[in-house]
């Protein structure tokens, strides 16, 4: 591969990171933001230049630092992925639901994956957070659970045939 080929590949990969419909945030071991993609910019209202080099906890003081670090440390140390689901915590980033007319939820429900990013030397000095919007899935599951409760109540009252 030539230098031009490498540069072209780098550019299309960066374009993909910026336009994918998933939040991508890269954090270093000090939890400073190194990458803040277009999804994050769009939903947070923060430009990458406003987020870069600030800690996650400076940007989002509501995130409990000790809890988040307990989730992230094994990713750095053991080089394993970690997961946060909306069932455990509805969201990490309190983004408004961007479908307020058709959606029944005020905020975006999120699943999050933390992945280690190994350097050329094999060291993990950065982790990647991938933030998935699962609002539709969460809303449907909540509706199903509410319906199941109502059916059970009807059955207990003897109102079913």
TrEMBL record:
Pfam families assigned: PAS (PF00989)
Span of domain PAS fold: 16-73
InterPro entries for this protein: PAS-like_dom_sf (IPR035965), PAS_fold (IPR013767)
Gene3D superfamilies reported for this sequence: PAS domain
Name recorded for this polypeptide: PAS fold domain-containing protein
UniProt source species: Aliiglaciecola litoralis
